[in-house]
Fold each of these.
Amino acid sequence: MVMLTILLASVPQVQAPTEAPTEAPTEADYYQAQGVPIPENIELEIGGIQPLEDGSLLACTRRGQVWRITNPLSRSPKFSLWADGLQEPLGLWLHEGWIYSATRGELLRMRDSSGAGRADDFETINDDWNISGNYHEYNFGPRPDAEGNWWITTNRGFGGEPFGKPDWRGWALRLKPGEDMEPMAAGLRSPAGLELSPWGELFYTDNQGEWCGANKLSVIKEGAFYGHPFGIESAKLPQSHVTYPGKNPDGIMMPKAHTELPNFQLPAVWFPYNKMGRSASGMAWDRSEGAFGPFAGQLFVGDQYQASVMRVSLEKVAGEWQGACYPFRKGLAAGVIRVRQAEDGGLWVGMSDRGWPSLGTEGYGLQKLSWSGEMPFEIHEMRAKSTGFDVQFTKPVNLDQTKDSLLVSLSMSSYTYELHSAYGSDEMETQELTISEHHFSEDGLILHISVDGLREGYVHELHVMDVSDMDGNQLLHDVAYYTLIHIPAE
Amino acid sequence: MTCLGKPVKALCTFGLVFAGSSVFSAQVGMPAQQEAAPDSLVLSLERNLCMQCHQAPEGVEDFLRPLAAPPLNHLGSRVTPSWLSAWLMDPQKMRPGTRMPNMLSGFPEDERRQIADDLAAYLLSMDGNEPLELLEVGADVVKEGEQLFTEIGCIACHAQAFADRELAAMTSVGSLRDQLLIPHQIRPSGLMPDMHLSEKEALSLASWLLREQQVGGPAKQQLLNGWKWHAYEYSGSSASGPDWETAEVFGHGLAEEIHPNYGGREDRYGLVFEGVLLVPEDGEYHFYVGSDDGSTLTIGEETLIDARFHQSHTRREQSHSLTAGAHPIRITYYEATGDDSLEAGWSGPGFEERPFAAEDVQHEGQVFAPLASLEIAPTADAQRGAQWFEKLRCAACHTSSAEIGSALNSGPAFDELVFDQGCLSEFPITGVPHYEWDSSERNELKQGVAHNDFLQARSGSTEFSPSKSAVRVATTMEAMQCTACHQRDGVGEPSEEQMRLFVGEGDLGEEGRIPPALTGVEAKLQPHWLAKVITNGEKVRPYMKTRMPSFGEQVGGVIARDLHANRRPMPALPQRDFDVAEVQMGREIAGTNGLACIVCHNMAGHKSPGIPGLDLATVADRLERSWFQQWLRNPHQMRSNTRMPVFWNEEGKSALTRLGEGDASVQINALWAYFSLGAAMPLPQGLITNPNVYSLIPMDRPLYFGTFMEGLSARVLTVGFPERVHLAFDQHNVRLAKVWRGEFMNGKGTWDGRAGELESPAGVEILDLPTGPPFAWSTDGSDWPTESGKDAGWRMVGQRRDADGNPTFRYRFEDVQVEESFLAKLGADGAYFERSFLLSSPQQATGLMRRWLDENGEIQVAAVEWTLAEGGYIAKIEEELKW
């Protein structure tokens, strides 16, 4: 990558207004992870988390149990078995006294009708799909939409299907109680995260692999095709809300696919492989209005391989969601599967690495990320403009220092991915971009940059180096990846 | 031939054997043992097979049980020609003490050689020429054989550091492995019992016994199919794997195929496979290696694939052009933690991609080969051998496929014997078997046979009196070498040196490693169990490494019968009715809130949290109830060195007064009632302290486990009950599919790694319910639908669990709703289910029939009877589901 170095001023050096800290701050200085102690005989391989009003938690495990954890952050929290026998539940949602969960074979709901501390009533909401006995036929969710429908996403299978090839794998299904299921969107691969946005649209995360060039975050649209042909034959069935898109060309650039393939839906955000984890999973919008720090309204996304939580900002341009992702918090105990916001704004992080490698050192776990109250110096948000981007910071940049003494290093490149049958895609058609102009807002909070050669449908990777805040700290993370679907008109 | 190798306590020197058995002590409370001395005359007659040539007086034949000589079938696949010839020349010289007499000692030296060669040629020609199987065996396998030899008890009869050049000349590793697996077929005498070896164990033992064939054998280093592997220590800390130059080797051996399990570890190890790749023709070849974690593939000097990463299974490929011929190939692999996998293979001109086959790769190695010529002597003549076979009456003792008339009773009858002209002569006589008896044995035989005194003493009735059977038992135990491991009535048991070699697991003292004494065993074990132990080697002491061998139906059955006949009349105990309360009391006594039997005993297949003493679930099946009662009251009187404590004082009261007022008879009866449920018993308190993460064990309330199930569907909810009956409800097909007893489920296939295996019940007595719904519109059951589930209109509604966790499954067919509930109950014939149905429908669903299995497994069909209720109609049905 070519580094574009801009000399801001040639005035001789002056002292920085405050002394630089002896040690650079780390993520953990701003967001602490506190672990929940787990009894030795419980394998808490978390598939879903549901905070309850009394401060306790329900956590479902990949082993089909639901544990109620009382005083989770005390030295010895109480674990009691609330339910067992579910098949690989990968999500929990509380609604009108019932706990909903997507399992392999059904969307069900359960409740403790007697108050004895265990679920005693289980109801099948919908089981219109069949499963084959393939381990990889995971289902994720559910999440309710504004109309009171339930949504789940279904994973494609890998390998043997001992009880026959099933329909509706790699789909987003809408399930109304008492009615037949409605298969709404197709072409998903490994859609491990499903979440309802504050404005009522559902988003899902998908995992890199065949027909999925990199991890991604997409909005779920009725009738859309997301690129994976594994379960697309089901689109020919009468229940399908997706028109059969035909056979995928094996090898077409994503922007081209977007314009040429019927119903093809680009993601709102790509997570460049390795740079931003390797396996995007559960997510949560920060609805705490500040209790979790400066990122209110933004999205936090787990990564199973990296044992991390990433951050995403979104904006709607020309009718489509697009936005940027940023590193946020690495070094969690195990591979992150679920992220769920607690009442106090903290983020519950549920983990399991069984079957897939993770940089986390534990096999499973439950941690809570809390904001320390200290303001980290971060790129708060990157927004697209007609000629470039606005980069907003969480706190003012030390303009004096910047103007008077230091170089600001900015660099940008853009690339896309190819839609093809091989596992993952390299970054394709990479271009180094020239930042033709930049300037800070007067309050030092926003950096406006103009860029030559913006491309629609490409990831724009920005590095911002050698800026510091008023305390002399460098940015905690100096990179952002903006997926530019549309260049705003003005 | 004799049994393999050299018995330590060879039966050759009877004087020695009997010297140890001349002192007997009758024990208090035990059956009369006054005449329990082995009968040396009987032993000698049976062992030497005298009755094969000489007709014994009437009545005696029923009493004597000759120890059959080995059949001569398929000798060619068991022995080398040169060994067989040498053996026939002089068996006594080759194996002092063998039962085989010298058949040729009366012939001149040069003639003997020719006869032996001719006979060998004939014997080996009988069943066609099956070659001895020559094998290459890895050093790791040989080493395992050495450990097995000591551990499982071979040393009780065979020399400790057994290494025999004679055996090494006789047979091959492959052949000996096969012989060890079927000893009863090779030697119907039972003298070499079946040690329950797996094929792998038999190969290990054979290779260790024949290890001399490897060093100094005639076979040279040669190119053999397959790979050589070495296993290396690896800490897992370096992502690029071990440093192969400096890493420590912890195992090595031979591999036919590439997989990650050589060396026996799951985590933190490295493997290197080496050989030469046989490239069939010049051309472009395509190689692949897939691994979790790292791997490399090197051909010649060129590393084609270098994937030294910590990774989940990832496959990499590389093409390479090669010339026809042999190219060195090396595959390295390492695994840090977690899942492991390794695959490697190739494709090339004219063949599709496949894993490397053993024939694709060679390494330099050496087969084990007999230390003897594999060729029949050139001057040998099989036809002449056949004549000798007949002339020497080989068929009197040996069966074979030879078409030669029986030689049975071809000698003079007992009462016509002329002692110095036959085999009792001290000097060899041409054409007469010569035995190397010592003078005392020879004299005993002469006197016994001459005076017929055994006739009066031992025959006359086929019924055994206790005293007679006691002698029979002692004689057989001596003959079968039971006394090498077991003491009975003061006779036998291993030498102190051997005793030190017996090993056991856990802290059970000598009881845990020395095979038990057999004094009075016939009053302890139930006859069917005694027979099982002797014929099949039934084992209840898992901690004891020494194996109880099996002597087979023919030999073992007779010993068991003798022992049973030796038994005094047993006290008649009153029959007791099954009582759930009594069983529950027994369960409580056995648990940690009671007398805590489980602290020192395994239970129903589960390890004790303390000492792993024998499993109490076998007690009621194994033991006589009278013995059990005595044992619990006075263990030390019955076995002085036992660690079994006494729980009841002299007044018959235990410290556990809460149950049955501490009364011994009440509490012991309760324990017996509880143990009588066998492996299906509900488990006692405190047994499961640290459950294996995959064993699913319902203890206090039902346990639910959803899984893919073999033969059913991918959506099965299994429910395990503490009563140890369990069920599988198929939610895809909307029906009860299976019920079973004992263990519930093991979750490994569903919970380990990426899982997704089809599971099956872990227990026993699995009943498969007939396919199809439990209710249907049918006339008489003959047209019952085989489809249920969604396709047939049945839908799951959900389930409820009552306060104790018992399930109710809810499903419907259109507007007919069904609630199917289960409760587990204990019963005399094992636990069972109370299954009940509640049907409801807004209209009376006329014509709806119910189908069920009765206790005999017969299908029954009846109409559902509806009654009017609020809001519609209902039907209630109760069923005892027993099987």
Amino acid sequence: MAKEKANPVPKKKINKSYIKRYWQLYALLLLPLIYLAVFKYLPMRYIVLAFKEYKLNTPLGDMPWANVKGQTDIWKYFKTAFGNADFRRALWNTVKLNLLDLICGFPAPIIFALILNEIRLKRFKKVVQTIAYMPHFLSWVIIASLCTQLFAQTDGMVNSLITKMGGENIPFLSDPAHWVATYVGAGVWQSFGWGSIIYLAAIAGINMELYEAAAVDGAGRFKKMWHITLPGIKPTIVVLLIMNLGYIMGGGFERPYAMRNNLVMEVAEVISTFVYKVGIQQLKISLTTAVGLFQSVVGLFFLLTANTISRKLGERGIW
Amino acid sequence: MKKKLLSVVLAASMMLSLAACGDKPADTQSQSTDTQSTTTTTTTTTDSTPAATETTGPDARGMQDGKFVETRHITVELYDRNVDGGTEAGNNAWTQWIQQQMLERYNVEVEFVTVSRWQESDDINNLLASQTAPDICYTYNYGAIQTYANMGGVIDLAPLLEENKDLVPSMFDWLGDELVYQDLDPSAGTLWAIEGKRNEICRINTFVRKDWLDTLGLKEPTNKAEFEEMLVAFRDNADTLLGADASKMVPLSISYDVGWRAATLIESFMDPNITDKEYYVNGYDDRKFTENGTKEAIRLLNKWYNDGLIWKDFAEHSGGDDTTEDDMIKAGFVGAFIHNYDYPFRNGKDSINATLAAQYGDNAKFVAINCFEDKNGGYTKYSYSNSGDRKVFFPATNDEPIASLCYLEFMSQPETVEFLQIGEEGVIHTVDAATGAIVIQAPDDAHHDWYQNSGKNIDMTINCNGLRLSDPDLTTLSLAFSYSDVDPEDVKNAIKAASLDAKVPGSPSVGDIAAETEGTDLAGKRDQTYDKAVVASVADFDAVWDQGMKEYLEAGGQAIMDERQAAWEATYSGDMLP
């Protein structure tokens, strides 16, 4: 053991011997890289389906280009999508719900991290942290049934309490506007604790001397928070904001699918559920590939724009 | 040393996973002709003319004396209902029996591919897209098969049947030419699927709590007004009926699937003299959404909902959550509901009636009644048609179509179906001493492997739905005894109620309707409209209904009706089936 450790590293050939010395770490990196290649890059060749007529049991190359009565029109499925009232509604809902998520969900972990940071009682802080992380590990199916149990119009626990105290039923799940609030609220509840981890880490990296110096200058808690902590985690906030903007057209499938019901479909149908319903359930693969491609392109556009703006403003981008 | 060892192990595992991943693409490419076979690897697929040199050898199909000379391997779809207390769907005494019989009779190995009963079409779509669909598939949805066929995913059965008709005599006996060729396209001559047959055609019933009626001194309602009075009485006497649980009272329970869970009510509002043509034109939607009269039926439901007679939260428990409502019914909080004609009797000890009896005594039970009068004073409702149940099709990846036909033949034989439905005496049935009827019972622990995961093994008897014993008279006699742990008299009464004034829909054969594969999410739009219309305020009802109907028709509903009308007019001269 000792011999190996003593192995000296010549400084000039740093690259080669660096890899040689830490090859185990690089080997560990292989697995995620393979994952990306197999599950993210290889499937990309099927993007071409958006411009083709999907056929079963036919190699990708042999599928004909999208056509209307024999007339090749590779944009056929994009036109079909935008001509479909359901898709337009899903598109609008996706943007709306994601924006609301961003407005309500993005600041929540930051505020939570700031508050946690001010708590001096270590054990209490740990307990609060753990409890706040927990919802992150629940699947949306479970959260959705929790919501039904809690918020159903008459049987739900919350409404039972409200009526027992003489109040009026609140249609948390059956009225579209209320449902959106419930949806966004559940999202914030599920993710704010977990999301705060990265900010807490950033806060931990701030130089303590700054606080001491500020204290000497007579800064109170809020002044310190405003002038030291927040600027200290600003780069982290910006990077996460950029990444979140990339998801503005995306978003998961599980959450809207598990939480919606027939009464609120007009606000709950989003692109991912539309793709599932039309693509998987009705096997309209070309149409939904077109939708997916459109979604990705718009997402990429948002991401690049946000990144450029952030760099122009003098912040670090995500690359 | 430890560190070194660890790194070697890690590196080795990396290499292994790399190798495994590298294999995959090549593997899937070569899979195009290979059907999914995870359990058996020894069987090799052979050409259809093996050992052709022998003089008295096998025929061109590779068969000798009705049996394949070389063992063939087929895969068969099987629903997995994930039954509580059941057995493994694809591996139990029943599946093993089928496998053994097929091997003995035809020298064909059968492998079952299980798909979730509740997501069957999603699963089959995925299997088809990945070219791993079972050789024999079935589904209730003909539109789906048509979609697959349009994409080149299904074998045309017309020529196959023509060449091999001698192999499937029992199937033709059981289904008849009419049913076998019901889906034959008159112009193209293609046959993508073979329809199954229903042997029990009862469909829906309205059920009420008998003991509640008795407690309140009410008679069974015989018309809508009396039914409404009964619901009001349930609501107003919740304290008497439920005591401490009075707040949980639900006079009438429905689910998000209103079209089904109000079917007797909806059908009573339809014109009893509707023509076959009108019925067919509106027939794409099996929830009667576009029929004349449906709107008025839902208007009545809407009134009841606003009067507090219907479960308030029904629409919030959507898709896939049947348990909340079932539990409510079993707990005894519900006064009435509309459902499958035998719904309270299903599932033996877990059935609704058996659960109620266990808690509140034998008088606590649901009985079937007729209480929704049509405009002529009868109780018009629709039963199932004998023809058309599940549709069997062979995906294009099926390279054993003849062996697959043999399987259909085996499944059509009366003895096969009888055994699958009632098994051996003493195991899952006894013979009633007084009447000689077959009485189905749950198997004891020693024979648990013979548990039927689906009632009468309906998921295995792929072209037969309903009790089918070799002796038709015994079949009729035994129907009421085919549910364990419930009173046969209640079942008899339910069959009688479901049959009263029940019409059997005709089965026109007009070829494929292309528009049926085009619409986007019509069933979803229908359910949303039904649900929203029921919970709307009375003043908003018309607006909600009309808007929902408009969206449904625009999304493809109208196109289907137009094409159906044209197809009918091209095939038949009058408004009624000949």
